[in-house]
Amino acid sequence: MMKYRKHIAVVLLAVCTLLLATGCRDSRRIPMANGRPQLTIMVGGLEKVIYLPAMLTERLGNFARNDIDVKLMGEQSGASAETALLTGDVQAVVGFYDHTVDLQAKEQCLRTVVQFSDVPGEVQLVSKAQAAEIRSPADFRGKKLGVTSLGSSTDFLTQALAGQAGLTTSDYDRVKVGAGQTFIAGMNHGGIDAGMTTDPTVAQMVKSGDARILLDMRTESGTRAALGGLYPASSLYMKCDTVRSHPDIVQKLATAFVQTLQWIETHTPEDIAAEMPSQYAAGGQDLYIQSIRDSIGMFNGDGLMKPEGAQNVLNILSRYSRNVAPKRDSIVLEDTYTNEFVEKALQGNQ
After folding, report:
1. Residue 12 scores a pLDDT above 60
2. What angle is formed at CA 265 by the lines to CA 253 and CA 341, rounded to 5 degrees?
């Protein structure tokens, strides 16, 4: 009997050790230091203009102004960022809203608490070598299409564009190429024929002549033409139990980002570029300013989610996401976002 109990004790100890090692932390607990919340936010590409509000909020001092300490971590794939959130390694993610819908289909609850934009800010580029052959998504057949990673938002959008042209995923190859320099290398060396990316990569490739724009989803008109409606993308999302357990901390975080979105509305691309880390302008300051000018209109200025946009995201994922399609009728959109914190922030900033 003693040997049996000892064996059980050893097994239980091993299980507990494994749980700790795999990072299954209680996401409802937010660390504190000197009375201030200590938050870690993973960003799906810190240098991407579509996620510019994250670093800009830090540089403007808006986190500190709202009595919270925030550490920003970069991760090129939104799919990887959501994994870090689910395991409790981070308390929030700056990424695409569509992940909250996709995860609900997997019985995981994530909620967007600040919506930065109503459009993706993404651009479908075609390599110089394929420019004559690929004139629309109907020409994707047999081609290699670059996405940040499989299961990422660029993957969802690529499938949507091809799907609306009557193609299925068996008609073309989706290739994981990340973003920035890995995307550029993939396009310039034949790894991909076309691909979806953002500024400043877009500005760099167009200026060099190595790629041309096929579809531009940095504007509302371009997004409606490509996707049949708005497609809210860049956002701040958290686990639902964190939002429920710490509404006061979520409010501080939301207020900080709303202050930044309002600041963007009243400042020039030159002003914004001057606040950002110098290494983000690796391609030159003028090119970086141009990339901000080309994309800055995507930000909505208030942080509010438009129900029309959320519905269009569900419509698209219902057709092109294997997770969402079979569960479309059970998805509760109201559980994937809230405007509560942003509305309070806007009232306080008037």
Report:
1. no
2. 25
Asked if residue 205 lies in contact with residue 211, where contact means CB atoms within 8 angstroms, the answer is yes
Q: Are strands 110-115 and 234-239 parallel, antiparallel or unpaired?
A: antiparallel
Quick one: average pLDDT of 161-181?
A: 94
**Residue type for 266, please?**
T
Q: What is the pLDDT of residues 93-109, one digit of tens each?
A: 999 999 999 999 999 99
Nearest of 266, 342, 261 to residue 304 by alpha carbon:
342
| C-alpha span between 167 and 151 (Å, rounded) | 18
CB 204 within 8 A of CB 287: yes
For residue 347, what are its two tokens? 């009232």
Quote the tokens at residue 98: 């569509």
Q: At a CB cut-off of 8 Å and minimum separation 6, what does 21 contact? A: none
Write down all domains in the chain, each with its CATH number in brackets.
32-119+232-349 (3.40.190.10), 122-217 (3.40.190.10)
**How remote is the C-alpha of 102 from its chain's centroid?**
13
pTM, to two decimals: 0.89
